[in-house]
Model the fold of this input.
Amino acid sequence: MSKKVTIRQKELLNHLPKAVRAEAVYKLSSVYVNRQPLKPFTPEEEKQYMQGILDVNPDHNDWPKYARNYWAEMSIPIGFTGVELEIGMDDNDFPLQIMDYIKYRFALKHPHVAMTKDEMDADFNKRFYIQDLSRDDKVKNNKIQMKKDADKEFIKLSSNPKSMKRVLRLLSTANPDRMTEDQIENSLYELKNTNPKKFLRIATDKNLELKSEIEEMVTAGVLRKIGTQIIYIDEVLGEDMDDTVVFLKDKKNSGKLTVMRAKLKELALA
Done:
């Protein structure tokens, strides 16, 4: 089945006229890793895909030398409009266009090539990226689905003030005990829209209630935080929140949890 991607270059000459930039060609060339040219294939794949491309057969004694020279001289010119590659496979699971497929695998392994434009722009060392429109559509749809799931969880939470307070306590530095229900709901809505992935992870956490209780104890002064460590008096309960949850869920520590809950209740009544 046919599948096409495009290798595109990073625009480094934005200060020049478009006509000049359109003529700029950069080369995605060989690099050395551990004193050997970068190879995108395993030895078995190399024999499978490059038979007939090199001047010797895979069983020839000089095959490793020819393969090494091939990768050492590898260079893909990338113009302003990019280089389109056919990377689809036939019914026998062999590339429809073997040379395009070789270039694609080389680009995938190359340290100067990013998988997306955003990744390339965020990394000074990345000078090219692989544009895959089908992958981009999938990524975009995944984000939409995540936002929809976050919306569903928000609707569930909004009917339960206690649950809203628990999530907000873990999602921000705000103290929901000093906020009205409207303020809590408004804050949660904004945080959900800003980071739906984080919101969804916290809202659906099976240990939400206990984690929120731990955070409440930290706010009240029953527990202390030093870095990520959570401490009760002079005892480290856990290196982070998850460690602390494991500690407090252990039945042998139930007495300690009861004491901490009593202290929290006393402070709330004071």
